[in-house]
Amino acid sequence: MKLGRSKGPAPSQIVLPEVHDVVSLNLGGGGRVPARVLERGADTLLVAITVPTRPLSPAQMAELIIEYTGNRGRVRLRGSCVMEDPSDSDLVRINKPRSVEVLQEREYVRIRSSRPVLVYSSREQQQIQSYTVDVSGGGLLLAGPETLRIGEEVRFRLTLESGALPVTGTGHVVRTDGHGRLGVVFDEISDLDRRRLVRFIFECQRAERRRGLDKGTDDV
Questions:
Q1: For the structural domain made of 110-219, what CATH number should be given?
Q2: 180, CA 20 to 30 Å: which among 33, 80, 129, 219?
Q3: Number of helices (H) and strands (E), helices first, in the chain?
């Protein structure tokens, strides 16, 4: 997804995530773990890490950035981070959070399309064959697998056409639904592959319009 950077809002304008919202904790060096908001105050957040992980080091706590999706796009906050309870390393308190940046997300057309996609989960150390429910230039809705978790990073190989090179990249799971489907937002995808994906979507739309016109002619 192509993102534009904007200056962060003033501290008083920051809309913090709600209690129970899922967020990501960026630890620096490419590390990221999912967490859930347990408590929200005027200038503080308490979050719980939701996957097994080692206790965060002082260096990681100093560099920690909390990331979530707000009404203006993806928001990244930094604050004074401390362990809420020395006996429970999964609880992290972020005091006086301030905006690092807001990433404005470009709108992309989304179409329903079932295409084979190979998903690699570093947590499970395996490749999983799935297929798309719909696609856009900024992400995919996958039919599964249900074993992936919100916040989990994945690599993908999406086949648009038989015999053509796959579209590849990385992303992370941002939502699930009651049918076991997974919304994945792209983190890294080459400009060429994104153009190929957008062109594929355009061609699908054009084919749908042609079929609609042909059907209308047959009905006359």
A1: 2.40.10.220
A2: 33
A3: 2, 14
* Cα(194)–Cα(188) distance, integer angstroms: 10
- Residue 80: the pLDDT is 93
- The pLDDT assigned to 101 comes to 59
Length of the chain equals 220
Residue 155: the pLDDT is: 92
In percent, how much of the chain has pLDDT > 70?
Answer: 82
- Of 2.60.40, 2.30.110, 1.20.1740, 1.10.760, the CATH number of 3-105 is 2.30.110
What pLDDT, in 10s, does the model give residues 125-142?
Answer: 778 899 999 998 889 999
Distances (CA, A) of 206 to 33, 115, 138, 165, 216: 40, 18, 20, 22, 15
* Whole-number Å distance between alpha carbons of 40 and 66: 13
Biggest alpha carbon–alpha carbon distance for the chain: 75
H/E stretch holding 104? strand 88-105
H/E element, 198: helix 191-219
Which neighbouring-strand residues pair with 78?
A: 98
Entry pTM = 0.52
What is each CA distance from 85 to 47, 82, 91, 134, in whole angstroms? 12, 9, 7, 43
